[in-house]
Design a protein that fits this description.
With 306 residues, the chain is mainly alpha-helical. It folds into two domains: 231 residues, 3-Layer(aba) Sandwich (Rossmann fold), CATH 3.40.50.970; 64 residues, no CATH class. The protein contains 16 helices and five strands. A three-stranded parallel beta sheet has the order 1-2-3, with helices on both faces. Strands 4-5 form a two-stranded antiparallel sheet. Helix 1 crosses helix 3 and helix 2 crosses helix 3. The radius of gyration is 21 Å and the shape is globular. The relative contact order is 0.10. It binds thiamine diphosphate and magnesium ion. The site of magnesium ion (MG) has 7 residues, from strand 4.
Amino acid sequence: MRWNALAMVAKANQAYGELGGHIASYASAADLFETGFNHFFHARSDAHRCDLVFFQPHSAPGVYARAFLEGRLSEEDLKHYRQELTAPAFTQGSGARGLSSYPHPYLMPDFWQFPTGSMGIGPISSIYHARFMRYLTHRNLLDCEGRKVWGVFGDGEMDEPESMSALTLAAREKLDNLVWVVNCNLQRLDGPVRGNGRIIDELEKLFAGAGWNVIKLVWGSDWDGLFARDVSGALARVFANTVDGQMQTFAAKDGRFNRDNFFGQNPELARLAEGMTDEQIDRLKRGGHDLVKIHAAYAAAAAHTG
Ligand SMILES: Cc1ncc(C[n+]2csc(CCOP(=O)(O)OP(=O)(O)O)c2C)c(N)n1
Ligand SMILES: [Mg+2]
């Protein structure tokens, strides 16, 4: 799916260089989306009236790539990414309908539930939808018990005023039917989200302060052993002092660089990494790319009450 998403964007831009299409965003969010699709998001069925899912707009290529594997979109549709034209002259009789840049129920009514393309619209809409579903249930108008509203958003998107402005309403109304997944890849189009700070800590404070239950999924499983052996807290301390700009450098460099410059910061840390090869250090994952940890976080978030 990552490959097809990338190929779709690259081919569209080969044909028309001005189309654009965000290659890195879905690559970063793929594990977050797929864990949701495979284990948590409910489709409409006799047994379930369906969840509502607000997808990060510019990760749409990944959702199209998945729909293609499911047989819901054709190869011709994929070839018309960001070229949603229905006139036969444009599609050369291929039957392709084209795929809109961003989720858009007006352009693709049988595909997308909500428009999210203007960043911040998805976050605030998801809160009001969750609240309205509660309203319907409480007044016996429609039973929305067991249905969730999910939102998968970006860390840069959290800078939009709309993303933040209804947070306290969600807590006040105890909207435990609402789950947000904020992909803190530390990156936005124009650079790091917080070069000299730590976006995960900032967001934790903002959301917890507004009354939300916050789960930070930071480390992949292969860090568990290191944290267990770190009896003095050296690892936790060094991370607390590493800002996002530095984290991006560590992520971009290889195992040798990380042994020297990350674990090399003091003897305690260097000892922790002694039993590991450079390749193992290179492969240490962040939590957002560890399917087991993502599943555990989603399950905990979905089960939270109040
Ligand atoms: C209101 C608004 N402003 C600007 C944009 C253009 N835009 C698209 S993606 C993006 C950056 C998104 O960063 P982030 O939310 O961190 O997502 P990532 O790609 O890192 O997953 C911007 C500024 C937009 N879609 N909507
Ligand atoms: Mg980002």
